[in-house]
Amino acid sequence: MYLDATEKFDKMYKNRYEAVILTAKYARRMNLERSRQKSEGEEETIPEEKQSKVLAQALKDVLDENVEFERSERI
Questions:
Q1: Residue 50 has what DSSP assignment?
Q2: 48: domain range?
Q3: Total structural domains within the chain
Q4: What is the DSSP letter of 66?
Q5: Are 62 and 26 a contacting pair, CB within 8 Å?
Q6: Long-range pairs of 22-26 with CB within 8 A, sequence gap ≥ 24
Q7: Does some domain include residue 36?
Q8: Is the CB of residue 22 less than 8 Å from the CB of residue 69?
Q9: pTM for this prediction
Q10: Does 73 reside within a domain?
Q11: Cβ contacts of residue 35 below 8 Å, gap of 6+?
């Protein structure tokens, strides 16, 4: 049985806030990259209507532990 996102976040990160911030920052980075590609006229291989939403993809990547990050020691 799969854990839901909040349970998995609780096991993976110090707190949910950290997981939400990480996911949001990663989604912004993905969105900026897509915007850059679009403005430069690069053709995407997947039609826009079939692409997953940026936030949904970011959440999936974070939950699958495909995103690397460093924790700041600041409090």
A1: G
A2: 5-63
A3: 1
A4: -
A5: yes
A6: 22/62, 22/67, 22/69, 23/55, 23/58, 23/59, 23/62, 24/58, 26/58, 26/61, 26/62, 26/67
A7: yes
A8: yes
A9: 0.69
A10: no
A11: none
Token couple for 12: 């993976």
Q: What tokens were used for 34?
A: 């897509």
> What gap in Å lies between CA 57 and CA 53, rounded to an integer?
6
- Tens of each residue's pLDDT in the chain, 75 residues: 345 777 877 777 777 788 888 889 999 999 998 888 888 876 565 556 556 788 888 888 888 888 877 766 655
Burial degree of 49 (CB within 10 A; 0-12, 13-18, 19+): exposed
Tell me if 30 sits within 8 A of 54, measured CB to CB.
yes
Asked whether residue 69 is assigned to any structural domain, the reply reads no
Answer yes or no: is 23 within a domain: yes
